[in-house]
Amino acid sequence: MHEYSLVQALVSRVEAAAREKNATRVHRLRVSVGELSGVEPDLFRSAYEVFRAGTLCEGADLEIVKVAARFACPGCGEELGRGEVLRCARCDRPARLAPGSDELLLESVELEVP
Amino acid sequence: MCTTCGCGDPELVPVELHERILAGNDRIASHNRQHFREAGVLALNLMGSPGSGKTAVLEATAHLLGGLRLGAVSADLATDNDARRLEKAGITSRAITTGQACHLDADLVHRALHDFPWRDLDVFFIENVGNLVCPAIYDLGQEKNVVVLSVTEGEDKPQKYPVIFRKADLVLLTKCDLLPHLEVDLAKLEDALARVMPEPRFMRLSARSGEGMEGFRDWVLSLRSALGRAADAPARSLAADHTHAHADGDHPTHAHAHEEGEAARSPRRR
């Protein structure tokens, strides 16, 4: 269960962004979770529900965008199917993971500025 | 205030960030990595299930790397048993007791370095918490990731835990001395690795019988010598008594003094 420490990092980053803009509230935040990021979106959300109390994110909706993992050949661009050996049979090259597939990103926040 | 109509309502400001949530951890990890590289210390992060044989592999490796100065930090929820085993095997060790935390992060490793003679080492092993999930997502500043998978754990482990195996630079298939007693098909296990690692690299070994251990020793030695050459190059920029530009505002954990702690311990290769 590392989701709590991730949510902690998320909330402090959002609070820093809010301070920067002299915001009084955070309305929403959008996070993208790659399938291979090692983060379970549901656990992440429940950790957020618990952790946001008493922070600037208290009233902020969390939107989670799930990003499916995709592997493709760096040579011919052919995408590999789920569960396949991660090597392009045609080019004999190791597959490359598409951007976002393994990332956990804070995409954007919506702040209330007085 | 709303400036469109002057109504006095608060304004909603969208801010695009597109930032890694673990950016703070990544910064400390790069900092650790820079230290390790410039001191010519090879840092290896060992991950694997509880009981996969991480400590045993290190004990057996110590016997084969007698000429090198080895050190380790060993993470455990509650005991320092592993660190004591490693000390006995000749590896200067320190336990990091993580309490409830299921993984190491870069800051825990960084803090452990402060009272540890890591600069005097050739190889620094970071034995992570026994867990195939959480440790995978935290960069610690290691040079390479090693995942230890015992043959008793089942052929489909890689596909069940793709995140950690994809991060592995090397997978050690341990306890191979038990194979005659098991119904494990190693070819299936290796095929499973190829479905989660684009460039699967693995070694079969047994820490108990010593079978295959030379392969791991040679892997460590070649990485160590490549790193040693880089560290000895004249272009070294970071002496032990350096100061850093740590000021990234949101990272107070960097407010420590390398000058007092580590420079006092006679850094090598100045």
Major beta sheet summary of chain B: 7 strands, parallel
**Highest-level CATH class of chain B:** Alpha Beta
Q: Terminal Cα separation of chain A, in Å?
A: 37 Å
Distance between the termini of chain B: 58 Å
State the total count of DSSP E strands of chain B: 8
Which class do the helix and strand fractions of chain B yield? alpha/beta
Strand fraction band of chain B?
Answer: 15-25%
The tally of domains of chain B stands at 1
Mean pLDDT of chain A: 95
Q: Would you tell me the overall average pLDDT of chain B?
A: 86
SSE class of chain A: alpha+beta
Which word captures the global form of chain A?
elongated
- Low-confidence blocks of residues of chain B: 235-270
CATH superfamily of chain B: P-loop containing nucleotide triphosphate hydrolases
| Percent in strands of chain A | 25-35%
**Series of H and E elements of chain B:** EHEHEHEHEEHHEHEHH
- Number of discrete helical segments of chain B: 9
Rg of chain B, nearest Å: 21 Å
Q: Percent range for helical residues of chain B?
A: 25-40%
Give me the oligomer status: heterodimer
Structure characterization notes:
The complex is a heterodimer of chains A (114) and B (270). The longest helix of chain A is centred in the N-terminal third of the chain and has 18 residues, at 3-20. Chain A has a domain at 3-67 and 101-112: 2-Layer Sandwich (hypothetical protein PF0899 fold). In chain A, helix 1 (3-20) packs across helix 2 (41-51). The mean pLDDT of chain A is 95. Chain A has 114 residues and is an alpha+beta fold. Chain A has a 3-stranded mixed beta sheet with strand order 2-1-7, covered by helices on one side. Chain A has a two-stranded antiparallel sheet with strand order 3-6. Chain A has helices at 3-20, 41-51, and strands at 25-34, 61-67, 71-72, 87-88, 93-94, 96-97, 104-113. Chain B is built from 9 helices and 8 strands. In chain B, helix 1 packs parallel to helix 4 and helix 2 crosses helix 8. The termini of chain B are far apart. In chain B, strands 4-3-5-2-6-7-8 form a 7-stranded parallel beta sheet, with helices on both faces. The longest helix of chain B is centred in the C-terminal third of the chain and has 20 residues, at 213-232. Chain B has one domain (35-232): P-loop containing nucleotide triphosphate hydrolases (Rossmann fold). Residues 235-270 of chain B have low confidence and may be disordered. In chain B, 42% of the residues are buried. Chain B has helices at 23-38, 54-64, 81-88, 106-113, 157-160, 162-166, 186-194, 213-232, 258-261; strands at 11-20, 42-48, 70-76, 92-97, 123-127, 144-150, 170-174, 202-204. By secondary structure, chain B is an alpha/beta fold. Chain A binds chain B through residues 1-2, 5-6, 9-10, 12-13, 16-17, 21, 23-25, 27, 31, 36-39, 71, 83-87, 94-97, 102-114, and chain B through 1, 10-25, 101-103, 105, 133-134, 136-138, 159, 162-164, 166, 191, 194-199, 249-250.
